[in-house]
Design brief:
The structure is a homodimer.
Chain A: H1 4-12, H2 16-22, E1 24-28, H3 30-38, E2 45-48, E3 58-59, H4 62-68, E4 77-82, E5 95-99, H5 104-116, E6 121-124, H6 134-140, E7 148-151, H7 154-161, E8 165-174, E9 185-189, H8 197-200, E10 205-208, H9 220-234
Parallel strand pairs in A: 2-3, 5-6, 5-9, 6-7, 8-9, 8-10
Antiparallel strand pairs in A: 1-4, 2-4
InterPro entries (chains A, B): Alpha/beta_knot_MTases, MRM3-like_sub_bind, Ribosomal_eL30-like_sf, rRNA_Methyltransferase, SpoU_MeTrfase, tRNA_m1G_MTases_N
Keywords (chains A, B): Methyltransferase, Transferase
Pfam families (chains A, B): MRM3-like_sub_bind, SpoU_methylase
Chain lengths: 237, 237
């Protein structure tokens, strides 16, 4: 039995303003909650419809779960965690940066991609969707536990890094050659506007994904997948 | 002014059973409707809040639009089109096949990817989400007008094709080498179950996307993006 006021407080974490006010976020599902616990994050609260399967959790009924959950089909496990303090970026190896990505599913998929390709740091412009949004967390499939997401002004941060900045554009150089690459920051633009002016001004190199058909563009997550794959392929040897 | 009964009929096309019964589908937004018209498809009905901007359309009010639209923010243009008759697959060049992909956003992104990489035919297992689902259409960004989507039993169709069948699996051979590739059929599995048994039995070759981190898997659309990119890269020379 979870108190009504507690359910209401958990539910408020669906919204960014309450996440900021409380300094906490809500994670759902055994996979995501499990990976956050594995990463060493201390939960503020754990709730499960089968508490014997999740040590330290308190029981929650299906009805209570529906009141607190952000999912259409709640999966039986809720965790409330503190939002980690922002840490400084280290810029080790490659960094991915996002310039105004708005779609939660896209951001989640991009975080999962970073985890796959061993990119530990994701730099986001302040107008990128919040990484603790429940839809983002769900789409990361647990990878949020291993990728550090930092929100910062892009132009300033790119300048301060002193690293080469790579961006994608239809007018860029076709990727897939055997050119050597210095590790740096790959910036992906927003779904509707691409890269902003200040970021475009800072590109050391622009890349194009060769097209063989008539689509005008690629979804930001699929474009990033190809570019991260190519970075790893070209520098593997 | 659009009659209530007509709005109700348009709205019914949000559901697959009514699309099948009527043999029609609903497209929304100037880009998608425009690309379908450009492809030569004859509309059954065209509706616009600014009919002077869309020849052949009849006026529709914002209120009527909200009643007929499948979008949270309707974009002012609706088109009702006949579902094209199924055409036989030609298997020219590369074909993409999907084995039980359920998420509408993923299917739409995959259709857009086919269009980008010049893959004209997409073979889908009967349990793959319907390509005329409004969310699929929206995610194709108009590419549905240029990619032929065919629903057929996969095992039978793969056998009948006589072509090499390629699939992705964690245990496959790492892609990115310089091995020659014969054109064939690339099969992607469902989000939750991967490739089904009968399809796995028919693979000529299984590929793995090299991983550099700890994510257990990639989203189906991002994995397909990398594999299609690699196919084009490896056969470009």
């Amino acid at each position: 039995m979870v108190a009504k006021s507690e359910l209401k407080r958990i539910r408020s974490l669906h919204q960014k303003k309450y996440r900021i006010r409380e300094g906490q976020f809500l994670a759902e599902g055994m996979k995501l909650v499990g990976e956050l616990l594995d990463s060493g994050l201390e939960p503020v609260g754990l709730y499960s419809t089968a508490p014997e399967e999740l040590p330290g959790s308190q029981p929650i009924t299906e009805g209570e779960l529906r009141k607190a959950s952000a999912l259409v089909r709640p999966s039986g496990v809720l965790g409330v965690f503190p939002i980690p303090d922002p840490e400084p970026l280290t810029f080790e190896g490659w960094t991915l940066a996002l310039d105004g990505v708005r779609d939660p599913g896209n951001l989640g998929t991009l975080i999962r991609l970073c985890d796959w390709f061993g990119i530990g740091e994701l730099l986001c412009s302040p107008d990128t969707v919040d990484c603790y949004n429940p839809k983002v967390l769900q789409a990361t499939m647990g990878s949020i536990a291993r990728v550090r997401v930092v929100y910062k002004d892009l132009a300033e941060t790119l300048d301060a890094s002193g690293l080469p900045v790579y961006g994608a554009s239809m007018e860029g150089e076709a990727i897939g050659g055997e050119q050597p690459l210095s590790p740096g920051i790959l910036v992906m633009g927003s779904e509707s506007h691409g890269l902003s002016g200040p970021v475009r001004d800072r590109l050391s190199q622009t890349w194009a994904i060769p097209s063989f058909g008539r689509a005008e563009s690629l979804n930001v997550a699929t474009a990033a997948a190809i570019l991260l794959y190519e970075i790893r392929r070209a520098t593997r040897k």
